[in-house]
Structure formats: structure tokens, C-alpha cells
Inverse folding.
């Protein structure tokens, strides 16, 4: 077996100065959403970190997650992570294809059995014996089970792998399920988002690389450091929300003045993600900053939530609440009251945490005092 | 046809009264005050990750303005994009910006310390430097 090279050795071999290493550690610590007091610990750990083997499997997905990851706007961090992990299998990025590619995966699995990290993006179709997505002649279900068996941990990248995502949306023709429905005996880290923020993906890998263990998770299996707070908690439009200043349409004065997008359907209050502080495109902005409400892309069932442009207070409100919700959020236009409509709402209600503007205002006030 | 330029975009502050220090900025300044006091009393350093804070448009500039420019500013470039380290007008409070090689900010901190570690020469680098110097001297002797 090859001698395990540590990250410290590797960087010095590449002529990287200690100062540059310290800078990388500072960036990595920030990317892991850890406090700056942890920088020295991160430095000590990274120096000794072995180079972990990573196998990346793509299932029923749109490749948006991988796009996000490879467009990570912190090339220094990416350098650090991706020159330091050994990406042994990624069918979109690797040069090898066909039998050679599968052989690379098998070799890595054998060599690092029990130790490699498995990254999965996409959901896994289970209907009709899984025939809706196959590669190298095998169903995704089979491949996932086989590769997960030897993994130290599984990182489910994106909302599809984490919660089923778009393939899972009603009526789910392929019987798509998230990783956690099939793998029960391994730690699973859900890095949700459609796509997930690149620095969150690399931050989680960096955490594993640095500390050799998975980060603290929330109740949906997401790293608490990134998904601990709601978009609403960290939204810069929050002061407008608290003052009851809402944009009512996309081109009214409220919208032009940057007021709160709650009534335009913003799912920020029930969505946990890091966009409000980490932002997108190298920290340039995030959807709300561009005037669009949050879609709730990092939450389970976000696609079936009852409409992206319906206020939260409308989406999931039981029938009796429509009057109240309408007073808060404007007319509840086109609320079909047929049996189908009711069923949908009942389902939406089961899946969603019901929040009204009133409740949030109360919460906001309590939070302030 | 309308073009993008025809869409007028203005930003208003929720708090139009500029004389009142913005809430977010005031909170950060209080934190810095505590850290600087601790540094003087116990010697313990502190740091704040600027990107972990929710900021209203304008908060960032207001914070920069509130801390001002100090006497020292240095740039470090180890080949992965520059880092700019500057003391603010409050001695002991440093503003450290790390850029990546695309000139984007990769991380940004306020450090409360006598001197940010990034500016200190590091043992490993000094050892390497010493080797280089010794080799050069040996080679020079041969000529
Ligand atoms: S409702 Fe949306 S736009 Fe309004 S403060 Fe919350 S997250 Fe921001
Ligand atoms: S603002 Fe909401 S929908 Fe948009 S990327 Fe962030 S979490 Fe997803």
C-alpha cells in the first residue's frame, strides 16, 4: 500500500509557504462556518489530514449540483480540497469511460474499503425495479447499495439526493427516493439546495477532511453550521418585514424600494440555508437580493408546496384561515375549493410547517425584545 | 423596446436617519470594543468573520467608515491571490481581506491583535529561506 501522504506534506512539496497555508486555513474555516478562533485548530488538523478517497455517483439528476461545485468561486479552497482529495470516480469529470471507469471505482473501493467518502447527487428511481436510471448496465439502486456498503459516510449533495427533489415531486413517475430511504446503516450528510451553495459542499468536505468526522447535523441531517438558521432570520430585508412593508407585485413601489417579498411568495421563513449570508456567485448576491422570493429549494417537498408565488400564509392555510390570510396577504385569488384542492392543501399542510404573517410578526417582536 | 437600463432601481434604507448608527454596525462595534479591552487586559486576541454577518446594503461601508484607516497597510501574495492587511484607525483592530486568484473576496476578517499572524515570518519558511541562503553562500564560495 502507498504511504499515506498528509495534506501538510503535499502543500510543502508544492512549494506553498506557511503563510499561504495559514491563509487557506482562514478561508477554509470561514467556509466551514466555524468561528475564527478555530483557525489554529483547523491548521493543526489540516496539516496532518490524510488524503481521503472520494467516489462520486450521479443518479437521477440534472448535473446542476456538479455545475455548482465546479463553479465554486473560491479556487483557493477548491485547490486545497480537490487537489487534496483523491476523486477516484466521477462519471462526468473523469477522463476514463466505460469499463475502465468502472474498474477505477472498483479499485478505489477495494483499496479504501470502509474509509472512502461517497458523494451522491440525484435521487434514486425505485419503480419497476429501478429501470428508469441505469449506468454500466446496472440500476442506481444496485450501484448505490454496493458502493455505500464500503463507505465511511455518504454525502447526499443537492435536494434530490437529500429529499427526493424534483424527480420526487408529485406524481413521481419513477418512484424516486432520497439516499436516506435506501441506506440505513451509514452516516448520511444531507447538503440540500437546488443546487446547494458551492462553498457549503466544499465546506462539508473540508470538515470531513479536517476533523475526520462528520459535522453536527440538524434534524433533517443537514450540517447545522449552514442550515441552522432560516433565510428569514438572516435576510437583509427583515427590517422591512418587521415594519410591515411588503412588495405587492414585482413592479410596484414596494418592489422598487426593496421591501419584503413575503406576500410575493417568499419561503424564507420556513427555509434553512446559507444563501442570505454566504450568497451566490462568489458572494455577489442571492435571489432575494435580486428581487425574487426564496423558493425554499433546500427543504423537503419544495416543489409541491402549493406555488412559488403564493404567500406562505396562503399556501398551507386550512380552509377556515383563508379570510385571515387574505387580510394579511391580499386576495387569495383562484382558490379552488373542489375536493382536489382540499386534498392538495391537506397534503401540503402535513408536509409544511404552517406559518402566518401574524405569527412571524409576533415571533420577530419576541426575538427583538 | 425597453432595455435593462430603463428599469430604475433605488435602494432605500429602512432607517433613513443617518445620524443613528445602524443597528448591525453598532452590534459589531460593541463586539470589537469588548475584544480590544480583553486584548489590553489579558493579551488574548479576537476575530470576527465579516461574511458570517447579515448586512443591509450599506452596512459594510458604514462599518468601514466607522473604523477608518490607520497607519499600517500591507499586502501579501503567496501566489493564490493577494491578502490585504490594514490597521484601522483604532490601533489593534485590523481589517484582513483574503482574495482568491480571480480577485474575489474569499474570506474577510476583523482581527483584534497586536499584529495579524499573516504578517509574521513563519518558522517553516525561515528554515527554508536559511537553506536557500546557505546554498547560495556555498555556491558563491566556489566561484
Ligand atoms: S419574508 Fe423573505 S424577503 Fe421578507 S424578510 Fe423574510 S426572507 Fe426576507
Ligand atoms: S433564496 Fe431560497 S430558493 Fe433561492 S437559493 Fe436560497 S434557499 Fe434556495
Amino acid at each position: 500500500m502507498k504511504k499515506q501522504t498528509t495534506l501538510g506534506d503535499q502543500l510543502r512539496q508544492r512549494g506553498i509557504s506557511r503563510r499561504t497555508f495559514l491563509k487557506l486555513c482562514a478561508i477554509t474555516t470561514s467556509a466551514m462556518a466555524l468561528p475564527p478562533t478555530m483557525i489554529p485548530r483547523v491548521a493543526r488538523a489540516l496539516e496532518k489530514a490524510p488524503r481521503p478517497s472520494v467516489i462520486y455517483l450521479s443518479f437521477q439528476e440534472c448535473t446542476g449540483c456538479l455545475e455548482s461545485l465546479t463553479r465554486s468561486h473560491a479556487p483557493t479552497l477548491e485547490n486545497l480540497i480537490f487537489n487534496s482529495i483523491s476523486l477516484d470516480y466521477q462519471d462526468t469529470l473523469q477522463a476514463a469511460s466505460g469499463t475502465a471507469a468502472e474498474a477505477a471505482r472498483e479499485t478505489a473501493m477495494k483499496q479504501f474499503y470502509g474509509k472512502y467518502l461517497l458523494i451522491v447527487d440525484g435521487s434514486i428511481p425505485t419503480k419497476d425495479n429501478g429501470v428508469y436510471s441505469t449506468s454500466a448496465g446496472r440500476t442506481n439502486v444496485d450501484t448505490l447499495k454496493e458502493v455505500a456498503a464500503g463507505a465511511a459516510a455518504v454525502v447526499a449533495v443537492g435536494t434530490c439526493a437529500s429529499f427526493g427533489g424534483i424527480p420526487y415531486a408529485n406524481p413521481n413517475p419513477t418512484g424516486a427516493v432520497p439516499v436516506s430511504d435506501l441506506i440505513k446503516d451509514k452516516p448520511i450528510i444531507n447538503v440540500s439546495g437546488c443546487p446547494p451553495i458551492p462553498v457549503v459542499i466544499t465546506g462539508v468536505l473540508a470538515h470531513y477532511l479536517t476533523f475526520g468526522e462528520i459535522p453536527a447535523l440538524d434534524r433533517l441531517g443537514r450540517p447545522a453550521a449552514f442550515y441552522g438558521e432560516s433565510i428569514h432570520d438572516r435576510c437583509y430585508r427583515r427590517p422591512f418585514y418587521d415594519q410591515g412593508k411588503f412588495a405587492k407585485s414585482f413592479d410596484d413601489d414596494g418592489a422598487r424600494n426593496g421591501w419584503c417579498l413575503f406576500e410575493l411568495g417568499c419561503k424564507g421563513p420556513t427555509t434553512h440555508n446559507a444563501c442570505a449570508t454566504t450568497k451566490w456567485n462568489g458572494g455577489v448576491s442571492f435571489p432575494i437580493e435580486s428581487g425574487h422570493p426564496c423558493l425554499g429549494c433546500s427543504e423537503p417537498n419544495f416543489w409541491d408546496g402549493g406555488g412559488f408565488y403564493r404567500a406562505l400564509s396562503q399556501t398551507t392555510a386550512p380552509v377556515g384561515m383563508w379570510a385571515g390570510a387574505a387580510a394579511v396577504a391580499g386576495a387569495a385569488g383562484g382558490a379552488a375549493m373542489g375536493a382536489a384542492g382540499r386534498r392538495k392543501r391537506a397534503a401540503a399542510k402535513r408536509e409544511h410547517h404552517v406559518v402566518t404573517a401574524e405569527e412571524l410578526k409576533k415571533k420577530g417582536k419576541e426575538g427583538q425584545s | 423596446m425597453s432595455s435593462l437600463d430603463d428599469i430604475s432601481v433605488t435602494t432605500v434604507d429602512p432607517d433613513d436617519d443617518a445620524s443613528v448608527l445602524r443597528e448591525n454596525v453598532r452590534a459589531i462595534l460593541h463586539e470589537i470594543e469588548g475584544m480590544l479591552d480583553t486584548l489590553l487586559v489579558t493579551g488574548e486576541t479576537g476575530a470576527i468573520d465579516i461574511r458570517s454577518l447579515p448586512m443591509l446594503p450599506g452596512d459594510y461601508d458604514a462599518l468601514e467608515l466607522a473604523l477608518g484607516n490607520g497607519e499600517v497597510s500591507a499586502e501579501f501574495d503567496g501566489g493564490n491571490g493577494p491578502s490585504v492587511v490594514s490597521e484601522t484607525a483604532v490601533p489593534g483592530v485590523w481589517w484582513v481581506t483574503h482574495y482568491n486568484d480571480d480577485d474575489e473576496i474569499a474570506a474577510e476578517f476583523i482581527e483584534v491583535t497586536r499584529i495579524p499572524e499573516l504578517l509574521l515570518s513563519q518558522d517553516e519558511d525561515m528554515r527554508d529561506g536559511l537553506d536557500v541562503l546557505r546554498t547560495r553562500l556555498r555556491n558563491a564560495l566556489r566561484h
